[in-house]
Input
Amino acid sequence: MKRLTREVESPGDLGVEFIKVPDGATIELDLRLESVMEGVLVTGTARAPLTGECVRCLEPLDQRVEADFQEMFSYPEADDRGRPVAEPADGEGAEGEEDTLFLEGDLFDLEPVLRDAVVLALPLQPVCREDCPGLCPECGARLADDPDHGHEDAVDIRWAALQGLAETMTDGEKDNEPRTDGDDSQEK
Output
């Protein structure tokens, strides 16, 4: 077993729409390499800075992400029991090889493992703070800057005529006044 600490440069395009590890940023790696029968088991933690914007108020934010990972890098000439690999007969066995990572001499490529671990550890809804109130849905004002922000109750134009009728009713007009349209047949 061997423990390593390394600082590597971000491979780029490490993130999602709202938050990502900046291209060229330094990623800190703490690794533990263990030799096993099938290859080398790599266990580690990656720490990296994040930049993006809050999904509620769209303010820029700077955070850090910490992602744990573990991956097996197999010897290319050994099967699951540590024996030399026989050539597959009818193309069988090719399906399992897609998910298997192999050592190349004494080296292994950690980038795909690192990419998967960091992107999966990113917050789905990054916010500048947990209680971020966001933006006003009517005017777009940042509610954290003005907590007492408000607007007059806007009237839906489809109901404006009814609101005018309601106002005239409250101003003293009575709806219960007798009808004087000359039709006496209804009173009989």
Remarks:
- Residues 88-96 have pLDDT under 50 and may be disordered.
